[in-house]
Amino acid sequence: MKIQSISACTGWFFCGKGARGEDLVLKVAAWGVRESGEVVGLIAAANAVTGDNIPRLAPPPAGIKGVYLPEEKLTHGQKVKAALR
User: Fold this and answer.
1) pLDDT band (50, 70, 90) for residue 15
2) Tens digits of per-residue pLDDT, 45-76?
3) H or E element: which one contains 80?
4) Count of other CB atoms within 10 angstroms of residue 62
5) Contact 56/49 with Cβ under 8 angstroms?
6) What is the DSSP string of 4-64?
7) Which element (helix H / strand E) includes 2?
8) What order of strands is seen across the sheet that includes strand 3-17?
9) Which of 11, 43, 46, 63 has the highest count of CB atoms within 10 angstroms of its CB?
10) Angle of CA points 66, 68, 73, to nearest 5°
11) Widest distance between CA atoms in the chain
């Protein structure tokens, strides 16, 4: 579904589990509002590029369940993981 508008944000992360059960902690760069009115966090994901190989923001990977958390709610382990990216 198409993104209608975006708004930059700071201090937010998408936290979930990867396909192999590993912890994912992805920094949210902006909030996007879809045509349906749904708000989704946009991240700088690996391989998220345009046809001209320009990096772009994308929603979290499809099929990955997780939550959006402000930085102050991250566990110590999540903060360490976030710092590695």
Assistant:
1) very high
2) 766 667 777 777 888 888 888 999 999 999 99
3) helix 76-83
4) 6
5) yes
6) EEEEEEEEEEEEEE-TTS-EEEEEEEEEEEETTS-EEEEE--TT-B-TT--B--BPSPTT-
7) none
8) 39-43, 23-34, 3-17, 66-70
9) 43
10) 110
11) 38
